Amino acid sequence: MVSVVGIGPGAPEYITPAALKRIKEAEVLVGAKRHLNLFKDLACKKIPLEAGLDLGKVLKSPGRVAVIATGDPGIYGILDLVLKHVSEEEVDVIPGISSVQYMMARLRLPAKDTAVVSLHGRGGDIVSAVRNHSTVVVLTDPVNNPVKIARLLLENGILDREIYVGQNLSYENEAIEKYGVKELAGSTGEFDINVVVIRICGNTESEYPMISF
């Protein structure tokens, strides 16, 4: 049996007791180096998840194997990759707090009429999602970044939205900033790993001040 374990948005305090229990039970722990470093005191074998790794072979290692990743493994997460190598019957999934959940909680927003779109390493029709939902949460990457998203909205005449950009969520250097579409589209700033929330608002010409939570 392979355990696929979500370890939350990043900071150790958001790892659930169930996730921690499964990790401590593992004899083989697989994950990104920065995630494995959170458990450097555990005696189990640790295997970095990196290019060139024969994951299928690792998952069939004798003993209890746990694959860890931030967020929730089933929400645009590591579960898809694991299921390419083992069957559903061989997998036990321990959910984690996703960056989407964390960001919405920090903004004190309910998830009603919310769409989640991942542009992380993939394309997606963000314009249609924004037109059809009052709130859209976007998982970004360095190419599909907040500025590019805002420019797409501007090009398509969508101005009645406010955009929140959350960076380094759950860490000490966390920052959540609020923008208008025009303001963000014209930004020359650089963004770290982030989650974007786009919400409908009433004033199409408002320029929103940058604020930190």
Automatic annotation (TrEMBL):
Pathway: Cofactor biosynthesis; adenosylcobalamin biosynthesis
GO molecular function, one term: protein methyltransferase activity
InterPro entries: 4pyrrol_Mease, 4pyrrol_Methylase_sf, 4pyrrole_Mease_sub1, 4pyrrole_Mease_sub2, CbiE, Cobalamin_biosynth_MTase
Keyword Disulfide bond: no
Keywords linked to the UniProt accession: Cobalamin biosynthesis, Methyltransferase, S-adenosyl-L-methionine, Transferase
Any single Pfam family the record assigns to this protein: TP_methylase
Domain Tetrapyrrole methylase: 1-184
GO biological process: cobalamin biosynthetic process; methylation
Entries under Gene3D superfamilies matching the protein: Cobalt-precorrin-4 Transmethylase, Domain 1 (3.40.1010.10), Methyltransferase, Cobalt-precorrin-4 Transmethylase, Domain 2 (3.30.950.10)
PANTHER family (UniProt xref): COBALT-PRECORRIN-6B C(15)-METHYLTRANSFERASE (DECARBOXYLATING), COBALT-PRECORRIN-7 C(5)-METHYLTRANSFERASE
Protein name: Precorrin-6y C5,15-methyltransferase (Decarboxylating), CbiE subunit
Species of provenance: Thermosediminibacter oceani (strain ATCC BAA-1034 / DSM 16646 / JW/IW-1228P)
